[in-house]
TrEMBL record:
SUPFAM superfamilies: IlvD/EDD N-terminal domain-like (SSF143975), LeuD/IlvD-like (SSF52016). It comes from Geodermatophilus pulveris. This is Dihydroxyacid dehydratase. InterPro entries: Dihydro-acid_dehy_C (IPR042096), DiOHA_6PGluconate_deHydtase_CS (IPR020558), ILV_EDD_C (IPR056740), ILV_EDD_N (IPR000581), IlvD/EDD_N (IPR037237), Sugar_Degrad_Dehydratases (IPR052352). One of its GO terms (molecular function) is metal ion binding.
């Protein structure tokens, strides 16, 4: 490229076999859109805009896009906003099925369109992981930013928010404690502003992961969506993207082994979402980092729970933000982190933390290593005859008395089967039963967040609040309970979950990291021989997905990506 050749506009111009013609044609269309040669001489910064009426979490995305554009312009770049699909947890189920579609789309649009750097703006649960996956496969610099979390609401004097409290109040409604009028009042108070769920659910967890991995500028994970802090961070992000366009630092150079090791420490200390396990495995695989389930367990065993946020604790994301955000947590964890790691901001973590004060004694969200909120092991990886390739439990959000439990299985064939039968007054179930659900893994169903099965109504009405539940599904990061998830191999891939029958004994031993089906091997072999094959969806995305998706234990990306 000569001195006066436009930068971004000149990228990927081989499609006509005549680079000069391609540039000329692009310049002609851009002239028609109001851009002159001076504009086109600037670095092109793509901005992925995930605004959508189907995504209320992203309602303030337009304002954030404007801030990023302003930052790009201030720094002498040329912003180009482009759309991708937008995924909201309540409107695009099962979102896990579409995470990979968004990741593929983002990767391809960043490759196909001219840009010297790109800002990926997400927020709601699957968007940030999909964008990090795309980033790991990108040949241009990427900066990730998020719309920010909601602020908390109030019901009868009690603070509340999406969606840990959504579940808690719904459970109270199911048990008859909260009548129709009051549950409708709760419904109006759970989501009080735009933004992502304001607990340490998947969205907050993945924002914290993006910041810790160094793919987001420091301080970006926690500013609430309606805040000026959020807007100013957008401006900084836009400015920084221009600097990266001029002096590239590629995502693969940022998302190193050290970056993931740091992320695992932070994940364990936050009591973050179990979904983050799958997402980080997927991102690492694309970044060429050999991360395994055992790495999560190793780091978690050694890292206490430090953040007092729901669902593992009691507070909300805005409280974490006021206490100093992710940098305050990183400061507490400083001795356990790789301080040489350099993120998109261009400085090492050590340099960054040198200017971060320790969290103040006035706040109670970010605890210290000497005074943690909970013991190590918030996330545990289990293995055993029911999950030879691994399963995951968020021990910090489980009932301590159930972490060692043996009980008879009550088996549900699918999430639909569970929904049909759980409220049946004649269901033969006791609080000692282990609720087992299958056909909810990636191959079978795109891995819906169905793993946190509701307590059967008759037990809920009798005051039972938690039971051991086991499945190949995921659960929402905002959920709680003694829920074993992501059993691998999944039932549709012939995993032992497919072989469980009502009454079989299942044994959970979280301290021993075991989940076992206490049925002898000969009997299981006979049952296996009688298993029908899984019916693959005949066409479309679901066919491509079901035939190429990797197990959850490897990140559930498509095998060819
Ligand atoms: Fe969007 Fe919870 S539904 S973050
Ligand atoms: Mg969620």
């Amino acid at each position: 490229m000569s001195e006066d050749t436009p930068r971004g506009v000149a990228r990927n111009t081989s499609s006509y076999g005549d680079p000069g013609f391609s540039r000329y044609l692009r310049a002609a269309f851009l002239a028609g859109a109001g851009y002159d040669a001076d504009d086109l001489s600037r670095p092109f910064v793509g901005i992925a805009d995930l605004g959508s009426d189907y995504n209320p979490c992203h309602r303030l995305m337009p304002a954030l896009v404007e801030q990023v554009k302003r930052g790009v312009l201030e720094a002498g770049g040329l912003p180009f906003v482009f759309p991708t699909i937008s995924l909201h947890e309540s409107f695009a189920a099962p979102t896990m099925l579409y995470r990979n579609l968004l990741a593929m789309e983002t990767e391809e649009m960043v490759r196909a369109q001219p840009m010297d750097a790109v800002v990926l703006l997400g927020g709601c649960d699957k968007t940030v992981p999909a964008q990090l996956m795309a980033a790991a496969s990108s040949e241009v610099p990427v900066v990730v930013d998020v719309v920010g979390s909601m602020t908390s609401g109030s019901f009868e004097g009690e603070r509340l928010g999406a969606c840990t409290d959504c579940r808690r109040f719904w459970a109270r409604h199911r048990s008859g404690e909260l009548d129709e009028g009051r549950i409708r009042a709760v419904e109006s108070a759970l989501v009080t502003t735009a933004g992502t769920c304001m607990v340490m659910g998947t969205a907050s967890t993945m924002a914290a992961m993006a910041e810790t991995l160094g793919m987001m500028l420091p301080g970006g994970a926690t500013p609430p969506a309606p805040s000026g802090d959020r807007l100013r961070h957008g401006t900084l992000t836009g400015r920084r993207a221009v600097a990266l366009a001029r002096d590239p630092l590629l995502p693969r150079e940022v998302m190193t082994r050290a970056a993931f090791e740091n992320a695992l420490v932070v994940l364990a200390a936050t009591g973050g979402s179990t979904n983050a396990v799958i997402h980080l495995l997927a991102v690492a695989r694309r970044a060429g980092v050999d991360l395994t389930l055992d790495d999560f367990d190793r780091v978690s065993r050694d890292t206490p729970l430090l953040l007092d946020l729901k669902p593992s604790g009691s507070q909300y994301m805005e409280d974490l933000h006021h206490a100093g955000g992710v940098p305050a947590l990183l400061k507490v964890l400083e001795s356990r982190l790789d301080l040489d790691h350099v993120g998109v901001g261009g400085t090492s973590l050590g340099q960054h933390l040198a200017s971060v004060p320790p969290p103040g004694a006035w706040q109670t969200v970010v605890r210290t290593l000497d005074d943690p909120l909970g013991p190590p092991g918030a996330l545990a990886v289990l293995r055993g005859s029911l999950a030879p390739d691994g399963a995951v439990i968020k021990a910090s959000a489980a009932t301590p008395g159930l972490l060692r439990h043996r009980g008879p299985a009550l088996v549900f064939e699918s999430p639909e089967d569970a929904a049909r039968r759980l409220d049946d007054p004649d269901l033969e179930v006791t609080a000692d039963h282990v609720l087992v659900m299958r056909n909810a893994g990636p191959v079978a169903a795109g891995m819906p967040e169905a793993g946190s099965l509701p307590i059967p109504r008759k037990l809920a009405e009798a005051g039972v609040r938690d039971m051991v539940r086991v499945s190949d599904a995921r659960m929402s990061g905002t959920s709680y309970g003694t829920v074993v998830l992501h059993c691998c191999p999944e039932s549709a891939a012939g995993g032992p979950l497919a072989l469980v029958r009502d009454g079989d004994l299942v044994e959970l031993d979280v301290p021993g990291r075991r989940i076992d089906l206490l049925v002898d091997a000969d009997e299981l072999a006979q049952r296996r021989a009688a298993l029908p094959p899984f019916a693959v969806p005949p066409r479309g995305w679901r066919h491509l997905y079901a035939t190429t998706v990797l197990p959850a234990s490897q990140g559930a990306d498509l095998d060819f990506l």
